[in-house]
């Protein structure tokens, strides 16, 4: 055993030293000819979009690199590249992680660069999520109101009403379990469920992160959060939801077999369901997310991405021009959708007709799902803010949720732990933080 | 290699003048050769020590006093500035770091005695001649150490995972449910992996020490009527005390740096979180949180704890040595 621990440490130190040196080369112009931009994204359809852009534009040419999604190493890749000074001109980032990257100085402040004509077309709730301290750091691509995908055939067969409130959701869950003891209404996601839990709390009016003046106010166990976590804890304790990781093999198998009869997720989930569970065609439908108070309906988002211009970019204006095209032009959306099925809800509402036209909704028995998304998107609560270190907050929360799912600790404990594990990080960065 | 001059030659310098014709030249040549040899022999070690230990340690200490610094909400990027002990304060006030400390301490308390006593017992058994096929037994016991740590962890993880493990299946047939990755079993499961790969190695050290025992002492013990067990415990073990101490210390140092096994188990069970041990905390701080100041501060704290504990063990053993005499 001696000598086994030491190489690990040495390896770590060396990796630490080398960490700054990896990542791909940046982009620089040739003396003449078009400006070349580099673009990183894990999103499907990006290559098609870039091809279309390069075909129709001469002044700017884009080199695209498909990168792993954030939790698969994409975040680390981007921050290492930024540290080494060779981040791409344009990078893709999800909403929760954006504040952390903005604090690290990875995205460029585009407040003044972003043309008003583009800003005006984007949903204000989406813009709010990329604007901190009145500075804008990224352009929203899609915004994903949370909806309820469910097995319409099973609900009809057992005469279970589609829940409009969370109380009804619980009684529907009980009815379904009675009618089909092997089936559950939905899943409580464990090893990757923090962001889902965040959306439920968002809807209930929680404010995990807030700013007052120059201080972060953090509370991952405020009253709305306690209400939501108590609710899910009860579903968990009464065995009314299936406990499994999102996107796992077993979860997909349960969706396929009907043992899991629902999925609460962002609008994008419709396309994902069509692609991953083709056998469900004609069986699934989409309903609005249950509400706490149906008279005052409100929603959180789940998923969604943004494009940033990095600080390293030598061509911020061209980069922003390319981003604006990707986000606001119908051609870009069509090119993206040509790569396969996507139900991502565009952050630019006037593009919805394009997305609706491209989408064959026979999977959902012809339901006008984009019409539903459009209505739901209006309900997104604009007050929610993501925190300064979500990558680590999320992974701490996921650890705790996994334990809660295994019966040790509670859902609320998981969030409290995520908060207490995040604070030292923030303090060591010199941020001004209070908890309440 | 033939130019190696041992310190034994020093005697010539202090002794009476040798009869050689030019003693000064010889002495000078000798001294030069000696210096050359010392340099040649020490150079590789020193170079490695500096390159893979002192420089990284210095770098880590330096990093630990610097950090990104932000004002207020922190948007727009910060500057790397001297922040003094801020990272240290953050680490020491981090409940997950202290929890990591706790799990490593518990691991040490279980692992170090188990591996030392286990290896010692095996070595004494082999040495007693009670076991036939001594060489084969020795080799079989040593074999697990030849398996790289990460592979060992994968193998054991396979045996621990419900649904995959033949062991769990076997127990299930006897109506016994075992959860190797549960809240209270996960640490013993990790200890088990480390024992499996560490026992044979340490046993070889003890066995080698036992082989070097003066046979006349053992003979005397036998003549005095000591049985096998008494000879082992009262004669053999005290004589190889220094080996025991060394193994204790190495095991302790290795235990403090626990990383590979829990890192892999982190993928398999929620009971091992991403900051389960001190080293995992450091890894997480550096590569998941990009907080190099925090990671360096934690590394330096781990280094200090390791040095302090090693020193304490040596001192404690030294005092016992003296009082035993």
UniProtKB/TrEMBL annotation, chain A:
Higher taxonomy: Bacteria, Bacillati, Actinomycetota, Actinomycetes, Kitasatosporales
Provenance organism: Streptomyces ureilyticus
Keywords: Cell membrane, Lipoprotein, Membrane, Palmitate, Signal
InterPro entries in the record: Bact_solute-bd_prot1, SBP
Signal peptide (UniProt feature, chain positions): 1-19
Pfam families per the UniProt record, alphabetical: SBP_bac_1 (PF01547)
Keyword Cell membrane: yes
Protein name listed in UniProt: Sugar ABC transporter substrate-binding protein
Gene3D superfamilies, alphabetized: Periplasmic binding protein-like II (3.40.190.10)
Cross-referenced PANTHER family: ARABINOSE-BINDING PROTEIN-RELATED (PTHR43649), POLYGALACTURONAN_RHAMNOGALACTURONAN-BINDING PROTEIN YTCQ (PTHR43649:SF33)
Presence of keyword Oxidoreductase: no
Automatic annotation (TrEMBL), chain B:
Membrane topology: Multi-pass membrane protein
Annotated InterPro entries: ABC_transporter_permease, MetI-like, MetI-like_sf
TM segment ranges: 35-61, 104-127, 139-159, 239-259, 292-313
Domain ABC transmembrane type-1: 101-313
Main localization of the protein described in the UniProt heading: membrane
Location of this chain's protein in the cell: Cell membrane
Record carries keyword Transmembrane: yes
Name listed for the protein in its UniProt record: Sugar ABC transporter permease
Annotated organism of origin: Streptomyces ureilyticus
Highest classification ranks of the organism: Bacteria, Bacillati, Actinomycetota, Actinomycetes, Kitasatosporales
